[in-house]
């Protein structure tokens, strides 16, 4: 018998992976490069393809098991075929059963039919739970996984689309039957657990200090409007990204990290930008070498990465290797926050609050006058082992100066 090992990919970049779900059962045939098993970290979900054509003969790491780089996930019998399956050899699952059972007795009347469809459709356990939770028929979802398989991201898009399609419908439209609200506890998923572990480790290992400035975005707003008139759409985050890179010149250690024998300063400015995924947490795609990019190049790279993040298509290389992070939390409405430095190997994280018009005092022609300006609070949270208050304030001063004096388009 020719047995091929299924191995956890090495490109983990320090993140902890767990087995999310097996897409093929022991004894089932699989073709080379077909999706075989899903691995999940706090950043991305990755499909591991079958390394050969054959039959899955054994599962070594089952659902929720930790998957270290290079670990053995399972085995494929390359000599077997679908008509001559080996005797299944499957390890017991942590939940105590081979298959995840769908208890229709606990579902509302509108969800029982969906449960029956889930049993007959080839979906991962996580996708089955999602379609039942949102009361969506999986046969109406266009799958983007290999072979047209429905993924969790496909379910999320279907839920968002259904929500939008119900807004603004005429009153004569047939009302949707909504089951009674049932407040229940929300079990932890793997992403939430990993985020929690990383947060605890971050605040335990690094002494956090936060400095607060405010910034007048008038010049940026004027430049942004002029670019829009020329048909070039830029987000405020693109300006923030570029200003952050340019400000590194006055305090290079902000782009560094703590080592036992030195402060290691990154040779390139690779900036991660926090991207919210709704209730599923957030990911931080990294824009590479921002210091060498123009404003438009930085904006285009950022748009491409955040688009991939929201479509669930980020690769591991897209979320690894950042030297600095931006949390533009103001896009969700908050005025002020002091984000945590989640990524080991970074010295600081920039927080940008909601941009809003405020009355401030400016000196004009020798007199103090009240004017209305688009303002935002900006914070820099630093690892105090790496930089001190002087460097922190110097960096923030330069960052604000760049934005407030942005040249006209």
Could you characterize the architecture of this molecule?
With 409 residues, the chain is of the alpha+beta class. It has three domains: 3-90, OB fold (Dihydrolipoamide Acetyltransferase, E2P); 104-166, no CATH class; 191-404, Chloramphenicol acetyltransferase-like domain (Chloramphenicol Acetyltransferase). The protein has helices at residues 112-120, 125-133, 152-166, 190-205, 218-229, 236-247, 295-310, 389-404; strands at 3-7, 18-22, 29-30, 35-40, 45-49, 54-59, 72-77, 89-90, 208-216, 256-258, 263-265, 271-273, 275-276, 282-283, 286-287, 324-327, 348-352, 356-364, 367-383. The strands form five sheets. Strands 9, 12, 15, 16, 17, 18 and 19 form a seven-stranded mixed β-sheet that branches. Helix 6 (236-247) crosses helix 7 (295-310) and helix 6 (236-247) crosses helix 8. The chain is elongated.
Question: What is the percentage of strand-forming residues?
Answer: 15-25%
Topology as a string of helices (H) and strands (E): EEEEEEEEHHHHEHHEEEEEEHEEEEH
What does the largest sheet look like? 7 strands, mixed
Q: How many domains, in number, for the residues?
A: 3
* CATH architecture type of the largest domain: 2-Layer Sandwich
User: Quick one: CATH class of the largest domain?
Assistant: Alpha Beta
Structural category: alpha+beta
Shape: elongated
**Share of helix among residues?**
25-40%
Q: Can you give the mean pLDDT? A: 81
Distance between the termini: 69 Å
Low-confidence stretches: 82-114, 163-174
Q: Count of DSSP E strands?
A: 19
Q: What's the helix count? A: 8
Corresponding CATH superfamily of the largest domain: Chloramphenicol acetyltransferase-like domain
Kindly identify the CATH topology of the largest domain: Chloramphenicol Acetyltransferase
Give the radius of gyration: 25 Å
């Amino acid at each position: 018998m020719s047995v091929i090992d299924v191995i956890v990919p090495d490109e983990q970049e320090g993140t902890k992976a767990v087995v999310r779900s097996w897409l093929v059962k022991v004894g089932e045939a699989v073709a080379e490069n077909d999706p075989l098993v899903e691995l999940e970290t706090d950043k991305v979900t990755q499909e591991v393809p079958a390394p050969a054509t054959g039959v899955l003969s054994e599962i070594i790491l089952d659902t929720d098991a930790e998957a270290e780089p290079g670990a053995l996930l399972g085995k494929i019998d390359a000599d077997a075929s679908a008509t001559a399956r080996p005797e299944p050899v499957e390890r017991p699952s942590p939940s105590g059963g081979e298959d995840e059972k769908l208890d229709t007795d606990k579902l509302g009347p509108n969800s029982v039919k969906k449960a029956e469809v889930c049993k007959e459709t080839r979906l991962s356990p996580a996708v089955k739970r999602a379609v039942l939770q949102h009361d969506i028929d999986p046969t109406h979802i266009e799958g983007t996984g290999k072979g047209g398989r429905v993924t969790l991201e496909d379910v999320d898009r279907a839920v968002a689309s259904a929500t939008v399609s119900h807004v603004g419908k005429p009153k004569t439209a047939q009302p949707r039957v909504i089951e009674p609200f049932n407040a229940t506890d929300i079990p932890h998923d793997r992403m939430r657990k990993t985020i929690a572990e990383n947060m605890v480790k971050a605040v335990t290992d690094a002494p956090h200090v936060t400095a607060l400035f405010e910034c007048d975005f008038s010049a940026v707003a004027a430049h942004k409007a002029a670019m829009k008139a020329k048909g070039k759409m830029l987000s405020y985050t693109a300006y923030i990204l570029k200003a952050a890179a340019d400000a590194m010149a006055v305090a290079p250690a902000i782009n560094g990290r703590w080592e036992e024998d030195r402060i290691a300063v990154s040779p390139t400015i690779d900036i991660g930008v926090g991207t919210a995924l709704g209730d599923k947490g957030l990911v931080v795609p990294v824009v590479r070498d921002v210091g060498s990019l123009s404003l438009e190049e930085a904006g285009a790279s950022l748009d491409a990465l955040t688009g991939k993040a929201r479509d669930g298509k980020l690769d591991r290389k897209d979320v690894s290797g950042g030297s600095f992070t931006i949390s533009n939390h103001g896009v969700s409405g908050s005025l002020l926050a002091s984000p945590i430095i989640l990524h080991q190997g970074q010295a600081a994280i920039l927080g940008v609050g909601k941009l809003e018009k405020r009355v401030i005092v400016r000196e004009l022609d020798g007199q103090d006058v009240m004017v209305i300006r688009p303002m935002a609070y900006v914070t820099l949270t630093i690892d105090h082992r790496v930089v001190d208050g002087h460097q922190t304030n110097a960096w923030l001063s330069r960052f604000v100066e760049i934005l407030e004096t942005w040249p006209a388009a």
